[in-house]
Design goal:
Elements lengths: L2 H36 L8 H32 L5 H24 L2 H19 L23
């Protein structure tokens, strides 16, 4: 893949993950509020505990997505592939998107599945990009022989 595509893919993936982080926190916040307002109990658990756990889960997942976005943004700015630890974090993020996409088809629909698969594709595309080609030095010009033939 050329360097023309490398940086924009990383930047777009980072931007999408930042937006997704905000969305994840908002969705978990709505779920936590509904559980608290409806006074729902899950097998006898305290609704306050369930609501608090949902807020914490949304915050942790949102922070994780922001971390993944920052790693992709850093890779785009540097125009280099992510390092070993960053690759592991991004691979886990890609696997999470694959699993969430599989669950989303039945629960939400094909549109949400398509969005998650686009994000998965952007992350994977960032991970499999080959390193940029090293700059090549210009070839030295051939020297002309200055010997003249004597007549």
């Amino acid at each position: 893949m050329s360097t023309v595509v490398r940086r924009p893919v990383a930047f777009v993936a980072a931007l999408v993950l930042f937006v997704e982080a905000v969305g994840a926190v908002l969705v978990n916040g709505v779920l936590a509020t509904v559980v608290k307002n409806q006074d729902m109990s899950l097998a006898g658990t305290d609704p306050e505990v369930v609501s608090g756990g949902t807020w914490v889960m949304g915050g942790v997942f949102g922070l994780y997505l922001v971390l993944c976005g920052l790693l992709l943004l850093l890779a785009g700015v540097r125009d280099r592939a992510p390092g070993r630890l960053a690759r592991i974090v991004l691979i886990v993020c890609a696997v999470a998107h694959g699993v969430l996409g599989a669950l989303t088809v039945g629960l939400v629909g094909w549109a949400a599945f398509a969005v998650l698969m686009v994000v998965l594709g952007l992350i994977v595309l960032t991970l499999i990009q080959p390193p940029p080609a090293p700059p090549t030095a210009p070839a030295p010009a051939p020297q002309r022989s200055s010997s003249r033939s004597a007549a």
